[in-house]
Amino acid sequence: xxxxxxxxxxxxxxxxxxxxxxxxxxxxxxxxxxxxxxxxxxxxxxxxxxxxxxxxxxxxxxxxxxxxxxxxxxxxxxxxxxxxxxxxxxxxxxxxxxxxxxxxxxxxxxxxxxxxxxxxxxxxxxxxxxxxxxxxxxxxxxxxxxxxxxxxxxxxxxxxxxxxxxxxxxxxxxxxxxxxxxxxxxxxxxxxxxxxxxxxxxxxxxxxxxxxxxxxxxxxxxxxxxxxxxxxxxxxx
Length: 237
Ligand SMILES: C[S@@+](CC[C@H](N)C(=O)[O-])C[C@H]1O[C@@H](n2cnc3c(N)ncnc32)[C@H](O)[C@@H]1O
What we know:
This protein is of the alpha/beta class. It has a single domain (27-234), classed as Vaccinia Virus protein VP39 (Rossmann fold). 29% of the residues lie in helices and 20% in strands. Bound molecules: S-adenosylmethionine. The site of S-adenosylmethionine has 18 residues, from helix 7.
């Protein structure tokens, strides 16, 4: 990864001392075009970053995760395929505004994040994270959430409603409701396949994270996902 030209890894100390020189300049410095930039946050092996990169050559994709070993498989695949519209950034999501300027990112994909049922502040679709994403998104920047979790899906629908974010598409059972030709059906992540193998339905939500003067956390009580407390063999059962 250290020698891959499309992988950026910045220790926190370096970031604090020098900042990130490509912030606000990814397109002119790295991609060498003016195409929209799409982030996958918590990308794991980067299946969406690479898969969408192949489907949409007219957009630039950046996969982000804190775990380098996982990201390596997507980084290797995209390098070997000679893809010029894919990059990877190793960082904690909480620091994302240090790497991108306002209006630099058009879309954010959240693929199977931990629902963080007990800690709203750590949930990647909480208002805390919406505030963070707003610092890098274009005015009508899109958020895509794909999840197995009924809890996270319901919470995110409620959060979008409470803050009047326009919802462009939503389904609690993606593989039985979307157009079979839709490209979002053609890419399955590592975690997604595990949940599908266990017979769980996949939920998907796409909304515009517009500017708001203030944000409201939803007040609805949401039932926890019962299967999340099971260990792997009980989940399989
Ligand atoms: C449940 S996995 C999903 C991985 C992948 N999207 C998939 O569907 O297979 C969550 C991923 O998010 C990453 N992650 C969680 N919290 C993060 C954070 N605060 N900053 C960066 N990455 C994070 C983890 O390292 C992990 O790879």
